[in-house]
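does this look right to u?? 3,4-dihydroxyphenylalanine version
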Amino acid sequence: MISEIEKRIKEASSFKSKDPKEIEKFRLKFLGKKGHISYFFSEFKKVKESDKKSYGLAINELKKITIAKLEESKIKEISNGKTNSKFEDLTRPVSTFELGSRHPISIIRDKIIDIFYKIGFNISEGPEIEDDWHNFTALNLPEHHPARDMQDTFFIQSSPDILLRTHTSSVQVRYMEKNIPPIRTISPGRVYRNEAISSRSHCIFHQVEGLYIDDQVSFSSLKQIILYFTKALFGKSKIRFRPSYFPFTEPSAEVDIFWGLESETDYRITKGTGWLEIMGCGMVDPNVLSNCNIDPEKFSGYAFGIGIERIAMLLYQIDDIRLFFENDIRFLEQFKGKL
Ligand code: DAH
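got this back:
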């Protein structure tokens, strides 16, 4: 009997194969239910008492060698790449989690929010489907006022009082109606204009509106806050205020920052002037304060409006606004890690 086991030990020791079928055959032949090892174990009781010990040791030896051989063959088979199941290939790279990225508009919006949040502004929101009062009339833009044409509006034909808001300035009206000064709020959100879609303009875009109302708010506080903002966002502190017109502010201004003229891109985006317009602002018109039940004799304030797409295009050097709305993965995944 023992000599038979020894024969099998020799046979197992000399086994060599990378073929998965051969390996499986070997396993069944030795370790299977009807294989050699279980047969030898079942014969154990017939073995003479004096031989039992060496018989037992021999079977264990055979079992050990068989298992070692199987493991060795498996490793060879895997490193040879000849396995047909990917789950058995221990050398394959681990599967990775595909991490998404945040949309560039959200990234810039959050940066702007962060900058103002640090100096005490809270965040307010309003509806995108607005009424005429909040979008126009309360902002000193009565019906038939020519300045309404500055913003091509989506109206609802059967109910022209309802419209898609053309700017986030409507949120300042809502906020002033519900709160008493001091008011320090910024309102980020989506706005709509009935404009032809091109690389420079879209019918949907995003703005952040800022509003500060208190006693003794002056134009110099406005200048200071905008200087703080441009330094924080662009790292640039040369700005200028150009007189402008908005119906809801008096005086009104547009803010330019000095971008520089160092590269060809600088030339292109600043049209050779080095200056770049980034936002509109002004002192809230007393009429607007009265419309929102705030006494203009007691309080004054400033407001400003920033286009998020414009800032994102500048900071990331994106030259087509449509890219923000197409959801092309090749565009979006470039913002990975910019959380
Ligand atoms: N609502 C203006 C627009 O959409 C932007 C703006 C300008 C907002 C001046 C303001 C402001 O609050 O003071 O063009």
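The CA atoms of residues 259 and 274 lie 5 Å apart. idk if thats expected tbh
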